[in-house]
Amino acid sequence: MAQRMTSTRPAPTETKVDILLVDDDATKRFAMKTILAPLGQSVIEAASGPDALRQLLKQDFAVILLDVRMPGMDGFEAAQLIRQRPRSELTPIIFVTALDRAETDMGRGYDLGAVDFVFAPVVPAIMRAKVTVFVELYKAQQELRRYRTQLERLVQERTTALTAINRELEAFSYSVSHDLRAPLLSFNGLNRTLLDDYGDALDPRAKDYLQRMRLASERMTSVFDGLQTLFRLTSGEIHREPCDISAMAAEVVDEMRAANLDRKVEVGIASGMNASADPRLARILLTNLISNAFKFTSKEPIARIEIGTEIVDGDTRLFVRDNGVGFDMIYAHKLFGAFQRLHSQSEFPGAGIGLATVRRIVNRHGGRAWAEGAVGEGATFYFVL
Prior knowledge:
Elements: E1 18-22, H1 26-36, E2 42-46, H2 49-58, E3 63-67, H3 75-84, E4 93-97, H4 106-111, E5 114-119, H5 124-198, H6 204-234, E6 241-244, H7 245-259, E7 265-269, E8 274-277, H8 279-296, E9 303-312, E10 315-322, H9 354-364, E11 368-373, E12 379-384
Parallel strand pairs: 1-2, 1-3, 3-4, 4-5, 7-9
Antiparallel strand pairs: 6-8, 9-10, 10-12, 11-12
Helix pairs in contact: 2-3, 5-6, 6-9, 7-8, 8-9
């Protein structure tokens, strides 16, 4: 019977961190290394203050165990020089001394950045516990640095990719503006000429076809215009300043009334609405939301639109509310997508760009936009800038 072979992968070895042990007495250094050996870390020895400074020029350490009483340069003097070096100014220092507490100037030690004092005789378990704290902290800091480096690299890659995408969008926008839109306008002009000059000579069926073609070309032109608007909203900087939203909304409503003279629409605008926003983009946002409300209340005998603000849980939100056809909340996620429509073109014509434009503007301001509604009961569009 064949034996089933099992392979065992070796456990990944954990990277050791370096601990600097500074003491002029070789016997004490050996004893301390023995105490720290169970931690499994790398202990680097220095026999004096100057020797410790030379070691710090070569590498960084998780913690420094520094003898207070040494000939030539004592531990306090060494600590002062260690703290003057930028790369080691935050390295934890534990002073180790055979002096008693009364003989040790602990205040000076703490002023020099000591995190702790250990007095002889050293208790091995306590020493290991103290050192372990700083070893684990150092490992965590190294891991954070590694993640930060990875994040910076990822951000750089995404920035490069986004730059390439923006260049492609610029090329596409140019193509829409010139290569596609121009022939469409020419086609629309010829169509209009045929209807104006030869419309009476055409039979009703041919005339109907030409009129349909004209409407289709006009819709395509509207779509191209919407695409260009979306692109322009994506590029360029925004310049925030205090905006009088109430006054801006009133101006937009006046424009809507002038364009819909045959309609009677009741509009209420709250006073004192203000926001920090790019004025140009804020006006485009309001124009899209208010025109949307005018459009979807067109079948109401008494159309009502409210533009206001409310505070919920300390969050100030602006809204445009109407009593129009509304929508089914199950499709709310589709509302702000480009070319997404919840109503037929024959009922409510449009390019399907307005709400996508609203979300793009809100996103550029670091805000959020959402909608609530019900079929036949109107809709409310909220936004926070």
